[in-house]
């Protein structure tokens, strides 16, 4: 799967094009609606820059035959220590550092989006987000430092013999396990943050389902972090048997995929006009089953109509206002 240079380049370019389109549409939508740019927007641009860097690295690695090709030896085999493998290790270290930073920027962008949408109306959520944003920032910083210092003061041991690597870099694999586990946990928590808020909105059921589905696009990011974790764990267990370059290629490719998929997922809530048209038939079906009781009998015509674009919370401002109104009504009751 990973010894296909043309496929790796094509996949990298396609993901970059899709993320570029998503970020471009996000900004053009804001300019068209004359909305302000917030921290969440600039953070996603920073993540896109890191994603672009990872794409260039992937293509460069394939071009110099350090990624996407077989070397014929396992990563801990003394015969595998060649210039080709060392170049791949340099690329892999850059992938690790840029990948963690890019993923962290995506998470922070999503958290700041929640802040601008919901924090004003929800005091408890505001307090939680302050803590959560701090933890996410510390998560990224700590694992970037862990990547830089995985061999302590013997950084060159990463590119040395297996004996040197095992002697000086013993914490690298446990640190990697901790990173992929906490990455998944952070993605999952970030994904479910808006669910109680959206369920509490005083809007039509179909609108509520549609809004929820748009936020749950973030499940793509959770799925990619699970996949990357699986690839990392499987690769670390196969260091004695699997081809060295294939292991590094697989890890680098899923590092890139997680960042790019995260950017796409983070742009989802701000591309509601496009996604509304895509999800409307599905939400109509779900809502009709959800409310197939007395409400259907009393309002048959209402349930037969698809939600129009003007009826939906189609912008950040509308959704923030809807959240504020719902919280005010709940407080009044």
UniProtKB/TrEMBL annotation:
Q: Keywords of this protein's UniProt record, alphabetized? A: Membrane, Transmembrane, Transmembrane helix
Positions of region (Disordered): 293-333
Keyword check for Membrane? yes
Subcellular localization, per the record? Membrane
User: How the protein sits in the membrane?
Assistant: Multi-pass membrane protein
GO CC, any one term: membrane
Keyword Membrane part of the UniProt annotation: yes
Pfam families xref list: Fung_rhodopsin (PF20684)
Q: Which residues form the Rhodopsin domain?
A: 25-276
Which parts pass through the membrane? 6-25, 37-60, 93-117, 129-149, 184-203, 210-233, 245-271
Major subcellular location class:
membrane
Family membership noted in the UniProt record: Belongs to the SAT4 family.
Q: Known PANTHER family for this protein?
A: INTEGRAL MEMBRANE PROTEIN, PTH11-LIKE INTEGRAL MEMBRANE PROTEIN (AFU_ORTHOLOGUE AFUA_5G11245)
Q: What is this protein called?
A: Rhodopsin domain-containing protein
């Amino acid at each position: 799967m990973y010894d296909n240079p043309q496929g790796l380049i094509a996949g990298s370019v396609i993901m970059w094009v899709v993320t570029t389109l998503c970020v471009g549409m996000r900004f053009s939508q804001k300019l068209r609606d004359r909305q302000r740019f917030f921290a969440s927007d600039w953070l996603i641009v920073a993540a896109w820059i890191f994603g672009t860097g990872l794409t260039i690295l992937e293509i460069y690695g394939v071009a110099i035959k350090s990624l996407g090709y077989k070397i014929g030896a396992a990563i801990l085999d003394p015969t595998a220590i060649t210039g080709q493998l060392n170049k791949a290790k340099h690329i892999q270290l850059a992938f690790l550092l840029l990948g963690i930073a890019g993923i962290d920027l995506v998470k922070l962008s999503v958290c700041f989006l929640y802040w601008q949408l919901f924090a004003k109306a929800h005091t408890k959520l505001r307090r939680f987000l302050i803590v959560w944003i701090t933890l996410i920032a510390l998560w990224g910083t700590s694992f970037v430092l862990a990547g830089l210092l995985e061999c302590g003061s013997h950084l060159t041991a990463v590119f040395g013999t297996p004996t040197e690597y095992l002697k000086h870099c013993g914490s690298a694999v446990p640190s990697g396990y901790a990173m992929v586990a906490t990455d998944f946990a952070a993605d999952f928590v970030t994904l479910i943050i808006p669910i109680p808020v959206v369920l509490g909105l005083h809007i039509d059921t179909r609108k509520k389902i549609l809004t929820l589905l748009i936020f749950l696009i973030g499940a793509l990011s959770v799925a990619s972090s699970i996949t990357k974790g699986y690839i990392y764990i499987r690769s670390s267990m196969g260091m004695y048997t699997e081809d060295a370059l294939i292991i590094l290629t697989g890890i680098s490719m899923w590092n890139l995929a997680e960042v790019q998929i995260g950017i796409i997922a983070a742009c989802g809530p701000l591309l509601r006009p496009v996604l509304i048209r895509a999800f409307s038939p599905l939400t109509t079906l779900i809502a009709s089953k959800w409310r197939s009781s007395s409400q259907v009998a009393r309002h048959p015509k209402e349930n037969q109509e698809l939600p129009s674009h003007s009826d939906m919370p189609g912008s950040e401002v509308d959704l923030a206002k809807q959240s504020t109104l719902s919280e005010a009504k709940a407080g009044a009751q």
